[in-house]
């Protein structure tokens, strides 16, 4: 059994944790949310890289066998440095633009992500490798993350802002939409309300957790010892609020994992 750290700027990475608990429920997890500094998408590259490294070092000091950087922005800006400094597997996330380009029937793909992700070298290097006949409509979802962080994912305010962001993607006729921020899977219901059921939504949570599973198997952590490991939630703002958000947003029954708020981190 392994101890897995999951790090995000706030509650977005709970979408990754949710999938991890579905596929790998036997392991123990520490979820660390830097909610005091969310969102990362509007901060400088240097700040994101430095802060992400500090928090991943914190998780490593707690004995984590692997860490998932469950934040597209932090992955884009910091993952190379984190991997160079920590001697444990570091799994990142990135917008699923490659699978989207393969699944799109009309070769028009919308990408809803943070401004930092869309401007990052990592994202644009990946974009440059994809077929030129596929058109990507890039849209920064400014303002959406704070609304999700404050528990307003299903609010009228969020729906109206989301509608504005999705309008260029809808006008372009995209048949596929990449959810390029781990917060955005929590907007699935709102997106379906605005765009209908026909558009394909690309969320890379499953692929990220499958990569985590491969890394754990390489470390010989594949044998379950118990059915449900423990989940500890830590925040730079308020861990009790984070636990409440997790219970609201996640489909996993956290009571089975004796989930608890451990405390705050600086």
Question: Can you put this structure into words, describing what you see?
Answer:
- With 266 residues, this protein is an alpha/beta fold.
- 44% of the residues lie in helices and 18% in strands.
- It has eleven helices and ten strands.
- The chain has a six-stranded parallel beta sheet, sandwiched between helices. A four-stranded parallel beta sheet has the order 6-5-7-8, with helices on both faces.
- Strand 9, helix 11 and strand 10 (260-264) form a beta-alpha-beta unit.
- The longest helix is centred in the first third of the chain and has 17 residues, at 45-61.
What brief labels describe this structure?
266 residues, six-stranded parallel beta sheet, alpha/beta, globular, 18% strand, Rossmann fold, four-stranded parallel beta sheet
